[in-house]
Specification:
One of its GO terms (molecular function) is amidase activity. By secondary structure, the chain is of the alpha/beta class. The protein is built from 16 helices and 13 strands. The strands form two sheets. The chain has an eleven-stranded mixed beta sheet with strand order 1-3-2-6-8-7-12-13-11-9-10, sandwiched between helices. Helix 2 runs antiparallel to helix 3, helix 4 crosses helix 7 and helix 10 crosses helix 11. The chain starts with 10 loop residues before the first helix and ends in an 11-residue tail after the last helix.
């Protein structure tokens, strides 16, 4: 088997093939870089590619393999989102300007290197990860490999596009309001929003909202990358290999209070309910429940907008930022004092009130988004307020779990009549990743989503 034929070979399978000597890291990495470059004109998934560095690291991985080293990801190519420090490259986080190159790896990157991964580049994200679309003046438009006229979502849209298209088998993203789960939903991937603190973030500026998490085409692959990035060898991959037991699953489609006009698209509603039927067919009990979200949104904004303010202070030339970014940073300055302290102080009460639903069910099943993927350019020319209304209408379901800091997993839920992917969330209480991963892996066996691939028109 040649490396160029491995477009949709899974992450775990690639690691096994490299370890068995069926393909070299140099071959895999060169093929991944070739696909990345070939796809750029259409998908535009990458902000930076590391051709020389990645090939040198792959050659070193092959030497280590020949010497008997068997690190879990040794020689396997991956990508990371451009909000994570990687030595020798800027961390632009979707912004224009000449950023300094990082002089040290972020903690999660250090763990990925320790596991042997070869990082081929950094993927595109909208300015400071603010929006569920990956477009901006710094890099242009990142497109959905299932339909290039539509967005792959955001803010981990570049990572999602790279994985869904078969450029690479897995990538690291970040999730501050659904930024792993939303693009996973809209590109047909498994995306894990991890428990707060599970993967070291190295100076997260959004006051506990943002975590790092994997995107992959299979549950096992996502679990393998999670183990590497979290420094938990084998823990989550083992969860993907075992049965979850019979669970009581709460189906919830009510949209948390947002103070804006929102509506669940009937196509998404039908897809999530069909997935509930699949879970019932696996022996799980499905009940309809509604978590008591209350006014949780009031605790989200001070944390997110203060984070935008703090990130803009790192930007070399703030005049080049989107006016919506500058407006959000201004609001962050106003909310950085008492409002921010109150938002953090209210979190334990939210844990108790919303978490009470887990006295009745083991897992929540909800839509990941309220709509299918919007067309590219949908948010062009909108004011800040209009953008907020439009993105909340499309994505009102994911962000409460960032306030809580609890884990969630997007799983593919089918497609629209036009072939656009849809997703659903499996949500759990604190430190429930293993349960969610086991359930997702069981569901994958009957849903068979890894068999669905977009046409690689690029």
């Amino acid at each position: 088997m040649t490396a160029t034929s491995l477009d949709f070979t899974g992450f775990a399978a690639q690691a096994a093939q490299v370890a068995a000597g069926e393909v070299t890291s140099a071959e895999l990495t060169a093929a991944a870089l070739g696909r990345a470059h070939a796809s750029q004109a259409t998908l535009n998934a990458f902000r930076y590619l590391r051709d020389d560095e990645a090939l040198a690291e792959a050659a070193d991985a092959d030497r280590r393999l020949a010497a008997g080293d068997r690190a879990p990801l040794l020689g396997v190519p991956i990508a990371i989102k451009d909000d994570v420090d990687l030595t020798g490259l800027p961390t632009s986080f979707g912004c224009v300007g000449e950023f300094p190159c990082a002089t040290a790896d972020a903690p999660a990157v250090a763990l990925l290197r320790e596991a042997g991964a070869v990082i081929i580049g950094k993927t595109n994200t909208p300015e400071l990860g603010q929006w569920p679309f990956t477009e901006g003046p710094a890099f242009g438009v990142t497109r959905n490999p299932w339909h290039p006229g539509h967005t792959p979502g955001g803010s981990s849209g570049g990572s999602a596009a790279a994985v869904a298209s078969g450029v690479i088998a897995a990538a690291l993203g970040s999730d501050g309001a659904g930024s792993v789960r939303i693009p996973a939903a809209w590109t047909g991937l498994v995306g894990i929003k991890t428990q707060r603190g599970r993967i070291p973030t190295g100076g997260e500026l959004f006051h506990g909202l943002t975590v790092l998490g994997p995107l992959a085409r299979t549950t096992e692959d996502a679990a393998l990358l999670l183990d590497a990035a979290a420094g938990t060898p084998g823990v989550f991959r083992a969860a993907a290999a075992r049965e979850p037991g019979k669970l009581r699953i709460g189906l919830s489609t009510r949209i948390p209070f947002t103070a804006t006009k929102t509506r669940l698209d009937p196509v998404v509603d039908a897809a999530v309910r069909r997935l509930a039927e699949s879970l019932a067919g696996l022996g799980h009990e499905i009940v309809e429940v509604e978590p008591d979200y209350g006014l949780i949104g009031l605790t989200f904004l001070p944390r997110s907008l203060t984070g935008v303010r703090d990130w803009t202070l790192r930007v070399p030339d703030r005049t080049g930022l989107d006016p919506r970014t500058r407006s959000n940073a201004g609001h962050g300055r106003l909310l950085a004092g008492p409002a921010l302290r109150l938002a953090r102080a209210l979190e334990p009460g939210l844990h108790r009130r919303i978490g009470s639903v887990f006295g009745r069910v083991d897992v929540l099943l909800t839509p990941t988004t309220a709509t299918p993927p919007p067309a590219v350019g949908t948010f062009d020319g909108l004011s800040g307020w209009e953008t907020d209304q439009a993105m909340i209408a499309a994505c009102p379901y994911a962000w409460p779990w960032n306030v809580l800091g609890w884990p969630g997993v997007n799983v593919p839920a089918g497609q629209t009549a036009d072939g656009l992917p849809l997703g659903a969330q499996l949500l759990g209480p604190s430190h429930a990743e293993e349960r969610l991963i086991s359930l997702a892996a069981q569901l994958e066996e009957v849903e068979r989503w890894p068999e669905r691939h977009p046409a690689t028109s690029w």
